[in-house]
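Q: For a teaching session next week I want to show students how multiple molecules come together into a single three-dimensional assembly. I've collected the sequence lines for a complex. Could you give me the predicted structure tokens for the whole thing so I can convert them for display?
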Amino acid sequence: MSNPNPKPEELVQIGYQPPSKDWMDPSVEFRKGTFCYSALPKNLNYLGLPNAREWQPFDEDWKLPPDWKQIILDGMKERLEKYRSFRLFMDICVRCGACADKCHFYLGSGDPKNMPVLRAELMRSIYRRYFTPAGRLLGPLAATPLAGGRELTEDVVKEWFYYFYQCTECRRCSVFCPYGIDTAEITMIGRELLNLIGCNINWVLEPAANCFRTGNHLGIQPHGFKDSLDFAVDELEELTGIRVDASINRKGAEVLFIVPSADYFGTPHYYTFLGYLALLHEIGLDYTFSAFASEGGNFGLFNSHEMIKRLNAKVYAEARRLGVKWILGGECGHMWRVLHQYMDTMNGPADFLEAPVSPVTGTRFENARSTKMVHICEFTADLIHEGKLRLDPARNNRWTVTFHDSCNPARAMGLLEEPRYILRSVCQRFHEMPENTIREQTFCCGSGSGLGTDENFEMRMRGGLPRANAVRYVKEKYGVNLLACICAIDKATLPPLLEYWVPGVEVAGIHELVGNALVMRGEKPRSTDLRGEPLVELEAAHA
Amino acid sequence: MPTFEVNSHQYDVDEDGFLQEPGIWNQDVACDFATTEGVEQLTEAHWKVINYLRNYYLQFGIAPMIRKLCKETGFKLNEIYQLFPSGPAKGACKLAGLPKPTGCV
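A: Of course. Below is the structure for the complete assembly, covering every listed component.
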């Protein structure tokens, strides 16, 4: 508040000249706009996490536990033994620099410690000092530039906090690493270690604590969920003339549908929620929501492996309790990394469920035969491919659309074609951004992994600059005015990013556009889209 | 914990200036916090939004969907921004003494 946000023309003056100080110097300046606030003690207490206290990153004294150093070293040792990937990633980097200019935070800040190689080196230098034979033999002598080691000091803890919360765990850098090092996993371990001594951010832990209390990040209680769902059903009826059935906690339904809670709270997420309701009604899917598994997202991913598992457990537990056959999941980003890469081994096997089969098309989702959970874009693309939907793409004529591949669905589960196939079916004007900014090379929104909070505004705008720049390109070249995406964090954080860098481009979920185009049996003539805005003719839209 | 002082009242707030104890809210609190949100005078329109938020919060323990707030108060989203320059979540909720929503919003 006292520190007004910098203007775009100021922020875009990025210096790529490295600072004169040695990179081994860990000191950082916690300047407002470039870090997130600490987690509130009530949230640590709720989750049973250590060292709950009042503190902020800009305080001199972080009130660490007296034996903090031993806790970190013990925690590192345990994880080096537990995760072979972690030890491998510590050992095999040759510092070729292929990743250096692939990080959106480096591109947007010019800070060399945001090069993925150097961000990881902040931890590797501790690894070399304390965990390699040479480091143990040389002791403090290993903490020299030549030996590449550093002493673990409080300043290193502060530096880790600063830079491991300036990584959105988007994994773009890992696409370019010739050794396949996944730097996001190093960030994840870094955050886990910080968590052991109570150095967390509130934007991660409050949603996690809420999730534990009410089943979802926002802290919506069952009667609140029902109130929102009833409101959406009423509004959809006003828009389409059709009253849809939408149940919560209905035992015996064929499918459990889990969406990010922001879909029934935020804007523009809500219009995607209307799209889901319209689509699932039209095809007659026998499905139910759950007030317990009322969140697809999992902010545990941004805290620790243990927290991922704790928050994810409700998905299979609720599928079992309700007696469904399989699970359908909504438009969410990191949710799909957890569901696709962790859920099966953490809380599975879900052998009480059936391999998912679309009751409408008979398609068997072989890719999900183990997890039993299907992405709604896979499901909808199949419906369109099999000719089961009547679509009028002209109803999306107010939009010229491009698609932002949300990091995790793209890189963690390879969901690249289905969203595009849907978009080409539900709107008439679709243009891709440049190829090195989409698909597996997609640029992050800059606010993922729990960093999408207001106090971190400057760093979010910096991190989102490469994405916004690509949007600007298609806006100027093709007149794009809508960025479609399939992630709730995107829907929350891309609107302010685009307003900052590319005013005039709005954000929507894919199923909002599906809901607009979907011709429902018995519907009244539609005069508006799901946002309540009048439908426009293509000629009028061009005028 | 930061505090916010105005008109000889003192409030415990979070780093963003949100009231820490929603239970102590009354109309004077809304007037006091209006000064931090660039709201010069609370009009009938402001009170309509604030009272709606407050009543919803007492019933459900959280703010309503933004879409629902707009529909039930009859204000479009841009009109809410005109009333509360920081918007419904950060501006209007702060004056109504609601906690700030967290997560993918």
